[in-house]
Amino acid sequence: MSSEAADEASETYSEFIDRVERLTNLGHAGGVLGWDQEVMMPEGGTPARSKQRSAISTVTHELLTSDEMAAALDDLEAGELSDERASVVREVRRQHDRAASVPQDLVEEISEVSSEAMPVWQEAKEEDDFSKFAPTLERLVELKREYAEHIDPDRDPYEVLFEEYEPYLGVDTAERVLERLREELVPLVEAVRESDADLATDTFEGEFDTDTQEDLARDVLDTLGYDWDHGRLDTAPHPFSSGNQFDARVTTRFSPDEPLGALMATVHEFGHATYTLGLPREEYGTPLGKSRDMTVHESQSRLWENHVGRSRAFWERFLPKVKERFPEKLSDASVDDVYEAANEVYEDNLIRVEADELTYHMHIIVRFEIERDLIRGDLDVEDVPEVWNDKYEEYLGIRPDSDAEGCLQDIHWSHGDFGYFPTYSLGSVLATQLYASAEEDIENIDEKVAEGDFDPLHDWLTENVHRHGCRYTTDELIRQATGEDYTADYFLDYVKSKYGELYELDDYQ
Amino acid sequence: MSSEAADEASETYSEFIDRVERLTNLGHAGGVLGWDQEVMMPEGGTPARSKQRSAISTVTHELLTSDEMAAALDDLEAGELSDERASVVREVRRQHDRAASVPQDLVEEISEVSSEAMPVWQEAKEEDDFSKFAPTLERLVELKREYAEHIDPDRDPYEVLFEEYEPYLGVDTAERVLERLREELVPLVEAVRESDADLATDTFEGEFDTDTQEDLARDVLDTLGYDWDHGRLDTAPHPFSSGNQFDARVTTRFSPDEPLGALMATVHEFGHATYTLGLPREEYGTPLGKSRDMTVHESQSRLWENHVGRSRAFWERFLPKVKERFPEKLSDASVDDVYEAANEVYEDNLIRVEADELTYHMHIIVRFEIERDLIRGDLDVEDVPEVWNDKYEEYLGIRPDSDAEGCLQDIHWSHGDFGYFPTYSLGSVLATQLYASAEEDIENIDEKVAEGDFDPLHDWLTENVHRHGCRYTTDELIRQATGEDYTADYFLDYVKSKYGELYELDDYQ
């Protein structure tokens, strides 16, 4: 390239990056508005807030799909690019193409129908009457199929929707992994159900003052290494985390009779926030400073929740802190007791968000199979409740009595979020694969956790996952971090050995 | 107009309104980011937040100055418009013209220099060394003069800058009113200083638990009628209020030795929020649903702070609540004691934000005269400290020992905010004029306040001020609300009679 051409290319790239940064910043601004709405906003603020968020979306959409952006992408792709720049262009191209292929009218209609769907779903759930929600769900399925068709009329619409949340692993991988989980976990859960093992599941019974719980949660975040200069903890009805590498916040919820649930939710959201905080600060504003998609994000939250928070080593460190705060409740509890309580496989839980580490995936698989079939046109909306209940019976051995505790339990479909659910399981599976790799690289990781020394794990995750942002695609990132392709082997080994031991299952130890 | 032409005009207007609403919503989104930054954001979030706010500003500026907006304004002005629509067009035209006349480069330079100015000012203040801040101040003065020149090269640059904060009263009015205040308040303050009256100024001496103070502040907001479904109270280093008619929030600050200051700050910010909440909800997004500028906004905060919060009637209602919370401190205090404490004229206070209702204006006048002369080129930056100190001696009878307590005390100049200060006094003056009018219309207003019945006052303010948004210009609004032109007569009568009585001044009762 002549030096003049190089200057020109460099100017094109720099103007392109300005646009990308503006887009990213508007996106993060929208994120702050979302956080505030969930955590701080008085209820009456909703009408104005919806309009503010929608204005940001509209402006973002216009910038992303503008002729200038399209031309810049074309120009850059036609020239030579460093690997890093090529990654940035790849990510923006994908967003641009998806956004540009869907008519703005359809986007707005989906947004409107979803807004209206929320209270309809809520009422249907309260009245335990799926038929009230069915027409709305039908409309959303239609609209999202139409949406997928605009993006790619030649591919399975569910595949297209799935890629909104996980663009690089492929829906076939998701399907294969979820099928394997079902095949191997259904008998494992059955074996657990039949086990006579007597776990200390009543360790956390009773009422736990929520202020003290919050104090504990702050302590656990301290212990794990949360950076309060770049984060905060608040409560929200549905715990979530949000933000960027300069300001990644965590929410949780406290209830007097579920201290363990609150702690695990806090650790889970900490995992998300830690990923965000590990993104390179100097790349803020471009895909190199942005987290990879849902699978990787969920792998980080599940890694901290399950592999750290539910481990014996963690409780060696943390149990004394709990005892200090609740001496009258836990004075006699051993690390083993807490470990057992934290890893109990519930007998008859129908609710995903209250599920244990093992049965959790059954909840995901049921919804995945149903939403996939709905979008593919292989299942009618009216048949959802029965199919749902049948699958629960088949996979979990329990049958919901009501739609409220069945197919109406989760809000996601009312948002029009089809294709999102599988990433919950894919993330858990990846968490195990990553943690296995970290265990190989970090000597005596359990001892370090028991000592409260989380620096090696943070360093490992930052080095192998966080600092790359969207530099690599999901599959490349996994290969780089673990030396292997994405696989469910580690996860299945892990749950078999863990629950085999806990529940004294001869076939699984 | 033919019906076809009418349809076309109506479509032009409706597209124009879409643009205006988008602009407003982006502005409010920026407001949420600002609130969060002051109240919630962890400190480390600053770099990302600055970029997010700047992205919103850039996008807003582009939309406001776009060719489409210019064409829509031209079209609408060329046609016939209802009074209401003409008001909307007038307001947007003003914003558009100002924004379009200043080169984006200059706007960005001012924004950059102000960002850098803040820490420089802070350091200069800490080290009590004006010379450290002088070069930055000089640069800001230059840039803002340049800014004003772009908007209108033929007018006094201070006048042009002043109109950014108060576009309709005119800088000549401001100058006339402030001069009159100086002439009449300087001797009044002197008389107060010479008075032998013994006020119960020690009523609030001691340490007051800040949690209990907050509880009190919430109670006073309840009593005054703050709508918690559309607002919230938090703390911030510099109390402020922000939001819109669906969500108008208040901040205050608590310090153990200044319970009265915290209460008055809360009531002041409540006044701002109440104005915002009184704006018509159905007009959200356009100038008809937007508050008039700084003078009117400040009139609302000062009305509640001074005419309600510092009145005997208010304390009849409120003192029992204070006593309940601080029985060991205030058990013997009478309403007169509290009234005297709340209206003490301080002997030697040099700090504006800690000033009483009377000497407050001296602080404003000093800064107004200095900033005006700086912008007009009649004063050199290097002479500011001495001129400042001389004026304090002349107007208040006290001379600052240091620049930290003198011309470096306030942050505003480091923001490049020249022309803002006078609206503080103009607002207080307007508060008195409005309250006098309300007193005429509401029978026995004092009794109602003493009973905690604030509905009539809310109704009066909503009817005469709030509901109009930017429908009228400031001067029209004042005439409509009070039947008179803007005048300082009421304010001067009010302070003379109030402080004449309090300090037993023969010449003033």
SSE layout:
The structure is a homodimer of 509-residue chains.
Chain A: H1 3-39, H2 46-64, H3 67-78, H4 83-101, H5 104-126, H6 130-151, H7 157-162, H8 171-194, H9 210-224, E1 233-235, E2 241-244, E3 247-252, H10 259-278, H11 294-309, H12 312-325, H13 327-330, H14 335-342, H15 360-376, H16 384-396, H17 422-441, H18 445-450, H19 455-464, H20 474-482, H21 489-502
Parallel strand pairs in A: 1-3
Antiparallel strand pairs in A: 2-3
Helix pairs in contact in A: 1-2, 1-3, 3-4, 5-6, 8-21, 9-10, 9-12, 10-11, 11-17, 12-14, 15-16, 17-21
| Quaternary structure of the protein | homodimer
**Any idea what the shape of chain A is?**
globular
Strand content of chain A: under 5%
| Low-pLDDT residue spans of chain A | none
How are strands sequenced across the largest beta sheet of chain A? 1-3-2
The number of distinct helices of chain A, counting runs of at least 4 residues, comes to 21
Using the 3D structure, state the CATH architecture of the domain at 210-347 and 436-480 in chain A. Answer: Orthogonal Bundle
Helix content of chain A: 55-70%
The structural class of chain A is mainly alpha
* CATH class group of the domain at 210-347 and 436-480 in chain A: Mainly Alpha
Mean pLDDT of chain A: 95
- Main β-sheet description of chain A: 3 strands, mixed
CATH topology group of the domain at 210-347 and 436-480 in chain A = Neurolysin, domain 3
Terminal residue distance of chain A: 62 Å
